[in-house]
Amino acid sequence: MTESDSSLDWKTRAAQRKQAQLDSIPSEWILHDLRLESENVMDVPEKCGLLSARELEITNTTDVEVILKKLSNSEWSSVDVTRAFYKRAIIAQQLTNCLTEIFVERALDRAKELDDILRRTGKVVGPLHGLPVSLKDQFTMKGLETIMGYVAWIGRYAKSDCVLVEMLYDCGAVPFVRTNVPQTLMWGETYNHVFGRTSNPYNRRLTAGGSSGGEGALVAMKGSPLGVGTDIGGSLRIPSAFCGLYTLRPSYERLPYYGATNALEGQESISSVLGPMTNSITGLKIFVKAIIDSQPWKRDPLVVRKEWSEKEYQLAFHGGGSPLCFAIMWDNGVVKPHPPLRRAMVMTKGALEAAGHRVIDWEPHRHLEIYKNSETIFVADGGEDYRTECERSGEPLIKSMISEDDGHEPIVEKPFVNHLVGESYHRSAYQLWELHKEKRQLRKSHLDYWEATVHRTGTGRPVDGIISPAVAYPAVPHGLNTDSFYTTLCNAMDYTTSVFPVTSVDTELDHPHDPHEFYNYEDEAVYKLYDSGLFQGCPVGLQLIGRTQEEEAVIRMTEIIDTALKENKRINTETDTK
Amino acid sequence: MTESDSSLDWKTRAAQRKQAQLDSIPSEWILHDLRLESENVMDVPEKCGLLSARELEITNTTDVEVILKKLSNSEWSSVDVTRAFYKRAIIAQQLTNCLTEIFVERALDRAKELDDILRRTGKVVGPLHGLPVSLKDQFTMKGLETIMGYVAWIGRYAKSDCVLVEMLYDCGAVPFVRTNVPQTLMWGETYNHVFGRTSNPYNRRLTAGGSSGGEGALVAMKGSPLGVGTDIGGSLRIPSAFCGLYTLRPSYERLPYYGATNALEGQESISSVLGPMTNSITGLKIFVKAIIDSQPWKRDPLVVRKEWSEKEYQLAFHGGGSPLCFAIMWDNGVVKPHPPLRRAMVMTKGALEAAGHRVIDWEPHRHLEIYKNSETIFVADGGEDYRTECERSGEPLIKSMISEDDGHEPIVEKPFVNHLVGESYHRSAYQLWELHKEKRQLRKSHLDYWEATVHRTGTGRPVDGIISPAVAYPAVPHGLNTDSFYTTLCNAMDYTTSVFPVTSVDTELDHPHDPHEFYNYEDEAVYKLYDSGLFQGCPVGLQLIGRTQEEEAVIRMTEIIDTALKENKRINTETDTK
Questions:
Q1: Inter-chain contact B435–A299, Cβ cutoff 8 Å?
Q2: Collapsing DSSP states into helix, strand and coil, what is residue B169?
Q3: pLDDT at A37
Q4: Active-site entry in B77, B134, B211, B498
Q5: Distance between CA B189 and CA B177 in Å, rounded?
Q6: Is A232 annotated as a binding residue?
């Protein structure tokens, strides 16, 4: 595929590129005669027979710290680890369509290079030595295309690595595969005309979320120990919640985005940020610390010059961590969470209290105003950016994530966000400045509101972190994901936010709520969507919201919550079996 | 003066407000029968007889560290110190027209409160206990007007303090007077229809610079030990250079701007920043550290959560400081500096080399592209912001800083910046995003260029700091200041930058250069402007450019340069007198 093919019609170009992707898969990794028992394909890698016992042992090791240790002491070679995860990634691809760029030889060559260095010198190259890392289809790698969901971008071979990839190489990582995104990036699902749609491995009739949905499905299937996605309104957190992963949405410009492609490039009012997605709680700190320790401000002029602070990680500004006081936002007043989300919050509250922490309630503050301001900023160009990229190839702008054969309709005729923001149009620079003024005032108001909780916590400090749903429901059928009300708050306020898995939907426990007084028509539609059968077994995650540029503290508090939840489950299991 | 007066014509409103300012001066502080020997009024405070010996002793103490020590050990009371500086400020006002809001009783009450606390508790309130601090006319104080150079803003009484003022109170400071600005703030001089024009105390026919020109004149006359100004294109550095002061232009959002009024509010592409202006090298660290130690991110949502780093102040990322390698930008290729600036750079190079540091040359990199990008962003609203504020009262937009009785013409028919940028018009949000993309690429290019100096320094590091003129000339006659080419670079790249005084113009030494091949018509006009007689005795300062968010390191390196210069002067003086 070369740039000269741009004379072809967009459907032909897309089909050719998709075929080229298929051709890039080693034939011995193709799944044949697959008889699936259900649309939950999580167990296929174990059962399909493609992975050896050793490859299963490697890929079932989700703890990034453990993988890195086995790599650094040469118990595992990077070639073996990379090949094992690559095979599993290719299995995941055939089941969920999560990948874009596949480059097996290149990744294995890199892994071999690292193995050789370690053998020769006895030293690791860096803190991520030998670790395969998957990348959302925005992180350019020299010599590979970066298609990012646009037909017009087929054949765009990168002349250099983006800064993140440069630093991953310096850290000893093995960037080994790239993952799917929606056209425009501005959807909470994952579908485009080139690579198609990514499904949720827990139930392929459901979305994996988006826009980092390829990572969501891939990492959930253990096809990658750690992926890197991005987030401008929930794009790390929605797929992480839907797929049962950990993630961290850092603050603007803490990690290096320079050189990665993006939608709405130059829109700096609410910056997209990058972060890790992983099955491993240890993965959050390892990734973030590795990148920050590499001094990204030397390569990306926008990155905040702030070293990794072990002092902040030890919660110096949170009383050393004992006890903490969390606040739970049970409901943001825009869309009421589904029953499994409520149960997850109850479980988390119980676990934290059992661990000696305090938990109080969080009443939402100007939530809808904040949301509206952000969404208005996102369309301040009147859609010019999307139109321009689509017009380059003639492909149409995608208006819905539902496809014809889904057999269902949208839950609302017009998403509530469109109702709120109104028709988008070319705003002037002056009008954008007016939105900035409003945003700044909203941030100040929310900050003051948070600070004022000092009178309610009993710790002498304001609330240490807010716990809330990331999305009001577990993963929904394709095309029905409309809620970014919980996530966008954090992008607007620039709050550091993690997502952590809590439980999975259990219809025995998660009975429908009685109807409430609906906040708006979308809230009503979301309420009606709840159907225990549909969601059964889906992961349920929550988000932890910390302050701006509190990456260290939010990671540590997420670890504390995770430990408390695991400890509580252990006790409950012991009690159950007695 | 109340808001109801807005029915009056703008000239009447302005005149009434100016009269009210005059009426706010205690009558015993009025200078009578003043016979000035020259337009250099720097010696008037000493000679006018208004200040007692003790008041002269206090106000001639320029070292902020010394003043704070005498306040904290009760050798001086805050009331005495505040009154002494206030009297000198009022003298400065009568000579240079540097003030806006005058509130003697309120400031003395505050000083008394601090004295009482110290007497009662034996403890200082904070690190700035008792110190009078003057504020540019943007920093709102509850109950006072904030006019900021617009007639329409007469009668706008602030309902609360801006965050900076809140923190100054917490630190124990005494905000005691506010200082003049130009209409729109976007001039390198200081003139508006309400308070008139601020002159340079070294020669009142010359401008004090701007937009923090009120602070420049006031602090130069020792009417304030430390003032706070702002900078979006040079507004701290131009008056500091013209008036012989130290200043620091911090990076975006390191110090709290929230609640201060501003021009082009909501324009966040190139943020205005606040910083100290002072006669005292110790003042820079004391002020910046005091504010950062107060955790401004708890009150201003935009402030970077980064503690004061003693490690960075000790130059941990600059080899511990011995030896450093500086680069001198002798000429930016847009406007060639006047002879005294060149001599200041030669002096600084010599002093640094004598102190054991290395000094190499800096070739400008894409300087004009960067400048053009910034200036285009500043007018992206097509002038809407200025027009709107002027229309509120009917006052005309000021088009030139020259007044009718100056007796001279502009040096160029149309400033080079206007020629570069073209007619301003309402740009769309999408067009602004395009400018952001360009800016980001320029920042990356400049960063890479700087990093690449690692091969030339001999220290194993890139250049530690760049030394250059802040402005191509010493202070010029009113209305003739056109150069912000040296300063705007730092706002665009967000480089932390200080200004420090080096020498003063000496016609015996600073002979005109031979004409060079002119870079553009403004460069030619600036060349022709040089006239030793006009500039004689004016201060000459330079700027030190460091990296983004390197406040600590830039302060320390400025101290090192200052010490080297003083040491060199001492040696030269000793040599001269032998």
A1: no
A2: helix
A3: 85
A4: B211
A5: 20
A6: yes
